[in-house]
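Please go through the protein record below and see whether the fold suits the sequence. Record follows.
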Amino acid sequence: MFWLNGMAGTGKSTISRTIARLRPKQGHLGASFFFKRGEMDRGNLAKFVPTLARQLASSVPGVAPLIKNAIDSDPAIIGKAVREQFDKLIREPLSKAFEATTSLSSLFIVIDALDECERDADIRLLINILSHTKILRPRLRVFLTSRPELPIRLGFSEVEGTYQDLVLHEMPAQIVEHDISAFLADEFRKIRDSFNLTVADERKLPPDWPGQQTMQDLTRMAVPLFVFAAT
Protein backbone atom coordinates (compact mmCIF):
# COMPACT_ATOMS: atom_id res chain seq x y z
CA MET A 1 0.00 0.00 0.00
CA PHE A 2 1.30 3.44 -0.93
CA TRP A 3 -0.10 6.46 0.91
CA LEU A 4 0.27 9.78 -0.89
CA ASN A 5 -0.64 12.53 1.52
CA GLY A 6 -0.52 16.29 1.36
CA MET A 7 -2.31 19.48 2.26
CA ALA A 8 -5.24 20.77 0.21
CA GLY A 9 -4.29 21.80 -3.30
CA THR A 10 -1.00 19.92 -3.53
CA GLY A 11 -2.14 17.68 -6.39
CA LYS A 12 -3.22 14.42 -4.77
CA SER A 13 -6.46 14.01 -6.71
CA THR A 14 -4.82 15.10 -9.95
CA ILE A 15 -2.28 12.32 -9.52
CA SER A 16 -4.87 9.68 -8.62
CA ARG A 17 -7.10 10.67 -11.55
CA THR A 18 -4.10 10.45 -13.87
CA ILE A 19 -3.25 6.97 -12.61
CA ALA A 20 -6.89 5.90 -12.93
CA ARG A 21 -6.97 7.25 -16.49
CA LEU A 22 -3.66 5.82 -17.71
CA ARG A 23 -3.56 2.43 -16.00
CA PRO A 24 -6.56 0.95 -17.88
CA LYS A 25 -4.73 1.62 -21.15
CA GLN A 26 -1.82 -0.42 -19.80
CA GLY A 27 -4.13 -3.13 -18.47
CA HIS A 28 -3.14 -2.62 -14.84
CA LEU A 29 -6.05 -0.78 -13.18
CA GLY A 30 -8.28 -3.16 -11.27
CA ALA A 31 -10.60 -0.68 -9.59
CA SER A 32 -10.87 2.82 -8.15
CA PHE A 33 -12.97 4.63 -5.57
CA PHE A 34 -13.10 8.40 -5.11
CA PHE A 35 -14.47 9.49 -1.75
CA LYS A 36 -16.56 12.67 -1.64
CA ARG A 37 -18.09 13.99 1.55
CA GLY A 38 -21.85 14.58 1.29
CA GLU A 39 -22.32 12.75 -2.02
CA MET A 40 -24.54 9.83 -1.05
CA ASP A 41 -22.54 6.58 -0.95
CA ARG A 42 -19.22 8.23 -1.81
CA GLY A 43 -18.94 9.64 1.71
CA ASN A 44 -18.92 6.30 3.52
CA LEU A 45 -18.10 2.61 3.13
CA ALA A 46 -21.63 1.42 2.29
CA LYS A 47 -20.86 0.82 -1.39
CA PHE A 48 -17.06 0.69 -1.21
CA VAL A 49 -16.63 -3.09 -1.53
CA PRO A 50 -19.50 -3.63 -4.02
CA THR A 51 -18.07 -0.86 -6.21
CA LEU A 52 -14.58 -2.38 -6.24
CA ALA A 53 -15.95 -5.89 -6.77
CA ARG A 54 -18.01 -4.79 -9.77
CA GLN A 55 -15.01 -3.05 -11.35
CA LEU A 56 -12.68 -5.98 -10.66
CA ALA A 57 -15.17 -8.38 -12.21
CA SER A 58 -15.08 -6.31 -15.39
CA SER A 59 -11.37 -5.54 -15.53
CA VAL A 60 -9.56 -8.63 -14.26
CA PRO A 61 -9.75 -11.86 -16.28
CA GLY A 62 -11.11 -14.80 -14.32
CA VAL A 63 -12.33 -12.78 -11.33
CA ALA A 64 -16.02 -12.42 -12.28
CA PRO A 65 -16.95 -16.10 -11.78
CA LEU A 66 -15.06 -16.16 -8.48
CA ILE A 67 -17.00 -13.16 -7.18
CA LYS A 68 -20.24 -14.71 -8.45
CA ASN A 69 -19.46 -17.93 -6.60
CA ALA A 70 -18.88 -15.96 -3.40
CA ILE A 71 -22.26 -14.24 -3.75
CA ASP A 72 -24.03 -17.49 -4.63
CA SER A 73 -22.52 -19.12 -1.54
CA ASP A 74 -23.67 -16.24 0.68
CA PRO A 75 -26.39 -14.08 -0.95
CA ALA A 76 -26.48 -11.89 2.17
CA ILE A 77 -22.79 -10.96 1.93
CA ILE A 78 -23.53 -7.42 0.66
CA GLY A 79 -25.31 -6.65 3.92
CA LYS A 80 -22.55 -7.95 6.16
CA ALA A 81 -19.63 -6.15 7.81
CA VAL A 82 -17.22 -4.35 5.49
CA ARG A 83 -14.27 -6.53 6.53
CA GLU A 84 -16.16 -9.72 5.67
CA GLN A 85 -17.34 -8.23 2.38
CA PHE A 86 -13.77 -7.32 1.48
CA ASP A 87 -12.43 -10.77 2.33
CA LYS A 88 -15.11 -12.66 0.39
CA LEU A 89 -15.54 -10.35 -2.62
CA ILE A 90 -12.07 -8.83 -3.06
CA ARG A 91 -9.21 -10.55 -1.28
CA GLU A 92 -10.18 -14.20 -1.76
CA PRO A 93 -11.22 -13.90 -5.45
CA LEU A 94 -8.03 -11.99 -6.28
CA SER A 95 -5.90 -14.50 -4.41
CA LYS A 96 -7.45 -17.37 -6.39
CA ALA A 97 -7.11 -15.46 -9.67
CA PHE A 98 -3.44 -14.76 -9.00
CA GLU A 99 -2.84 -18.43 -8.22
CA ALA A 100 -4.55 -19.51 -11.44
CA THR A 101 -2.53 -17.35 -13.84
CA THR A 102 0.80 -15.57 -14.16
CA SER A 103 -0.49 -13.14 -16.80
CA LEU A 104 -1.56 -10.63 -14.13
CA SER A 105 1.82 -9.02 -13.54
CA SER A 106 0.51 -6.18 -11.36
CA LEU A 107 -2.87 -4.78 -10.49
CA PHE A 108 -3.67 -1.35 -9.04
CA ILE A 109 -6.52 -0.28 -6.80
CA VAL A 110 -6.75 3.52 -6.54
CA ILE A 111 -8.49 5.10 -3.55
CA ASP A 112 -8.67 8.88 -3.57
CA ALA A 113 -9.43 11.41 -0.83
CA LEU A 114 -9.87 9.10 2.15
CA ASP A 115 -10.19 12.23 4.29
CA GLU A 116 -13.54 12.81 2.56
CA CYS A 117 -14.91 9.68 4.26
CA GLU A 118 -17.32 11.02 6.85
CA ARG A 119 -16.82 8.61 9.77
CA ASP A 120 -13.49 8.39 11.59
CA ALA A 121 -14.20 4.77 12.49
CA ASP A 122 -14.67 3.90 8.80
CA ILE A 123 -11.34 5.52 7.96
CA ARG A 124 -9.39 3.51 10.51
CA LEU A 125 -11.27 0.33 9.59
CA LEU A 126 -10.47 0.72 5.90
CA ILE A 127 -6.78 1.37 6.53
CA ASN A 128 -6.64 -1.76 8.67
CA ILE A 129 -8.42 -3.84 6.02
CA LEU A 130 -6.13 -2.57 3.26
CA SER A 131 -3.03 -3.32 5.34
CA HIS A 132 -3.87 -7.02 5.04
CA THR A 133 -3.63 -6.89 1.24
CA LYS A 134 0.15 -7.13 1.72
CA ILE A 135 -0.23 -10.91 1.37
CA LEU A 136 -1.11 -10.30 -2.29
CA ARG A 137 1.98 -8.20 -3.02
CA PRO A 138 3.71 -7.57 -5.33
CA ARG A 139 0.86 -8.37 -7.73
CA LEU A 140 -1.72 -6.17 -6.00
CA ARG A 141 -0.82 -2.58 -5.25
CA VAL A 142 -3.06 -0.15 -3.41
CA PHE A 143 -2.56 3.57 -4.10
CA LEU A 144 -4.30 5.79 -1.55
CA THR A 145 -4.42 9.58 -1.23
CA SER A 146 -5.59 11.84 1.58
CA ARG A 147 -4.88 14.91 3.60
CA PRO A 148 -2.77 14.16 6.70
CA GLU A 149 -5.70 14.42 9.10
CA LEU A 150 -5.58 12.91 12.58
CA PRO A 151 -7.86 9.87 12.08
CA ILE A 152 -5.83 8.86 9.03
CA ARG A 153 -2.49 9.33 10.77
CA LEU A 154 -3.78 7.27 13.68
CA GLY A 155 -4.99 4.58 11.31
CA PHE A 156 -1.62 4.27 9.64
CA SER A 157 0.19 4.32 12.99
CA GLU A 158 -1.65 1.09 13.81
CA VAL A 159 -0.38 -0.72 10.71
CA GLU A 160 3.31 0.20 10.70
CA GLY A 161 5.38 -1.79 8.25
CA THR A 162 2.55 -2.43 5.80
CA TYR A 163 2.81 0.73 3.70
CA GLN A 164 5.07 3.34 2.14
CA ASP A 165 4.23 7.02 2.09
CA LEU A 166 5.14 10.31 0.45
CA VAL A 167 4.27 13.74 1.84
CA LEU A 168 3.65 16.11 -1.06
CA HIS A 169 3.87 19.36 0.89
CA GLU A 170 7.34 18.35 2.11
CA MET A 171 8.71 17.88 -1.40
CA PRO A 172 11.61 20.21 -2.35
CA ALA A 173 10.35 23.37 -4.05
CA GLN A 174 12.37 22.78 -7.22
CA ILE A 175 10.75 19.38 -7.74
CA VAL A 176 7.27 20.84 -7.24
CA GLU A 177 8.09 23.64 -9.69
CA HIS A 178 9.37 21.16 -12.28
CA ASP A 179 6.27 18.97 -11.97
CA ILE A 180 3.86 21.91 -12.25
CA SER A 181 5.76 23.23 -15.26
CA ALA A 182 5.58 19.82 -16.96
CA PHE A 183 1.87 19.55 -16.19
CA LEU A 184 1.13 23.01 -17.61
CA ALA A 185 3.18 22.29 -20.73
CA ASP A 186 1.22 19.10 -21.37
CA GLU A 187 -2.15 20.78 -20.80
CA PHE A 188 -1.32 23.69 -23.10
CA ARG A 189 -0.12 21.23 -25.74
CA LYS A 190 -3.50 19.50 -25.62
CA ILE A 191 -5.31 22.84 -25.92
CA ARG A 192 -3.10 23.91 -28.83
CA ASP A 193 -3.50 20.63 -30.69
CA SER A 194 -7.27 20.59 -30.22
CA PHE A 195 -7.61 24.19 -31.37
CA ASN A 196 -5.38 23.68 -34.40
CA LEU A 197 -7.58 20.82 -35.60
CA THR A 198 -10.52 23.19 -35.91
CA VAL A 199 -9.04 26.20 -37.72
CA ALA A 200 -7.37 27.06 -41.00
CA ASP A 201 -3.56 27.04 -41.23
CA GLU A 202 -3.24 30.80 -40.91
CA ARG A 203 -5.04 30.76 -37.55
CA LYS A 204 -3.16 27.85 -36.00
CA LEU A 205 -1.25 28.41 -32.78
CA PRO A 206 2.57 28.15 -33.02
CA PRO A 207 4.42 25.14 -31.55
CA ASP A 208 5.79 27.22 -28.65
CA TRP A 209 2.38 28.66 -27.64
CA PRO A 210 1.73 30.22 -25.13
CA GLY A 211 5.40 31.19 -24.88
CA GLN A 212 8.20 30.61 -22.41
CA GLN A 213 7.58 33.76 -20.37
CA THR A 214 3.90 32.97 -19.92
CA MET A 215 4.75 29.44 -18.85
CA GLN A 216 7.28 30.69 -16.32
CA ASP A 217 4.81 33.23 -14.93
CA LEU A 218 2.03 30.66 -14.56
CA THR A 219 4.36 28.14 -12.94
CA ARG A 220 5.62 30.72 -10.47
CA MET A 221 2.04 31.72 -9.60
CA ALA A 222 1.01 28.09 -9.06
CA VAL A 223 3.85 26.88 -6.83
CA PRO A 224 3.33 25.16 -4.40
CA LEU A 225 -0.39 24.55 -5.09
CA PHE A 226 -0.93 22.05 -7.88
CA VAL A 227 -4.65 22.81 -7.80
CA PHE A 228 -3.89 26.27 -9.21
CA ALA A 229 -2.39 24.69 -12.32
CA ALA A 230 -5.07 22.01 -12.59
CA THR A 231 -7.94 24.48 -12.59
Notes: The chain has two domains: 2-167, 173-230. Residues 173-230 form one domain. The CA atoms of residues 93 and 193 lie 43 Å apart.
